C-alpha cells in the first residue's frame, strides 16, 4: 500500500479512471482481488458508482475498510472460484494485476457490462531482469497467453499500453524486489540493488465486452 500511495502506479490509475469516464451506464463496479483497496478508494473519489470490492485475504480487507474514508465501498472477503454476487448484477469488473475466473466473471457481469483487465507489460520491472538475469530461468517475459485467453472470452473494445520509469530510493527498490514474483526464488543477497536508480512500471490495459 505504501508503494501505491507513493504514486508509482499513478499512470495506471489515471488510465483506468479515463476509461471509466468513457463507459456508459456504469452503476456498479466490482474490484476483484482488491488487496488493500487502493484502486477502489481512488475511483470512488471520482465516480458516483456503487463499488464492491473483495480479496481472499482477511487482513487486506480489514486494512482496506479502515482506509475507506467514504465508508461507502462494500468490502468483503471472497474467493474468485465462488463469488457471492448475484447473476448479471455488475456493470464493470476491474481485474487489476489479479488472476481471472472468466466463468464467474461472465456470470455476474450484466449483458451490457465491461471488464477492465490490467496485466504486466513485457517491460515491467525490466531493470530487475537485467541485473538478475544470471539467476533467472526465463530472462524474457511474455503475456501473450493471458492476452489470447482474454480475447477468446471478450470483444476487445479498447487497449492501451501505459509505461513509466520512476526514480526511487534504494528502500523502495528493495520493497519492489520483495513484492515481485520474478525474484521469489532468487537469493536477493547476491544482487547489488544499489546499482539501480529507476524502475519501470509497465502495463497493458484491455477493455472487453461480452
Plain-language structure description:
By secondary structure, this protein is of the alpha/beta class. The chain contains eight helices and seven strands; from the N terminus they run ααβαβαββαβααβαβ. It has helices at 2-5, 10-22, 38-44, 58-67, 102-108, 126-131, 144-153, 170-179, and strands spanning 28-32, 50-55, 74-77, 90-96, 109-120, 155-167, 198-209. A seven-stranded mixed β-sheet has the order 3-2-1-4-5-7-6. It is globular, with a radius of gyration of 18 Å. The model has no long low-confidence stretch (mean pLDDT 95).
**Overall geometric form:** globular
Indicate the percent of residues in helices.
25-40%
Strand content: 25-35%
| Number of contiguous helices | 8
Structural class of the secondary structure composition?
alpha/beta
Largest beta-sheet details = 7 strands, mixed
Q: What strand order characterises the main sheet?
A: 3-2-1-4-5-7-6
SSE ordering:
HHEHEHEEHEHHEHE
Mean pLDDT: 95
Oligomer: single chain
Amino acid at each position: 500500500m505504501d508503494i501505491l500511495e507513493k504514486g508509482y502506479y499513478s499512470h495506471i490509475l489515471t488510465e483506468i479512471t479515463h476509461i471509466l469516464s468513457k463507459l456508459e451506464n456504469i452503476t456498479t463496479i466490482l474490484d476483484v482481488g482488491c488487496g488493500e483497496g487502493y484502486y477502489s478508494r481512488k475511483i470512488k473519489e471520482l465516480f458516483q458508482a456503487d463499488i464492491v470490492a473483495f480479496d481472499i485475504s482477511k487482513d487486506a480487507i480489514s486494512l482496506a475498510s479502515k482506509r475507506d474514508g467514504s465508508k461507502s465501498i462494500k468490502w468483503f472477503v471472497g474467493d474468485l472460484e465462488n463469488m457471492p454476487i448475484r447473476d448479471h448484477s455488475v456493470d464493470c469488473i476491474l481485474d487489476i494485476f489479479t488472476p481471472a475466473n472468466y466463468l464467474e466473471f461472465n456470470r455476474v457481469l450484466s449483458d451490457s457490462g465491461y471488464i477492465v483487465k490490467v496485466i504486466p507489460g513485457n517491460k515491467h520491472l525490466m531493470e530487475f531482469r537485467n541485473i538478475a538475469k544470471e539467476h533467472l530461468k526465463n530472462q524474457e517475459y511474455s503475456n501473450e497467453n493471458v492476452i489470447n485467453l482474454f480475447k477468446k472470452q471478450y470483444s476487445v473494445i479498447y487497449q492501451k499500453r501505459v509505461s513509466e520509469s520512476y526514480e526511487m530510493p534504494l528502500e523502495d527498490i528493495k520493497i519492489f524486489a520483495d513484492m515481485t514474483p520474478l525474484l521469489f526464488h532468487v537469493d536477493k543477497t547476491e544482487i547489488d540493488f544499489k546499482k539501480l536508480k529507476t524502475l519501470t512500471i509497465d502495463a497493458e490495459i484491455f477493455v472487453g465486452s461480452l
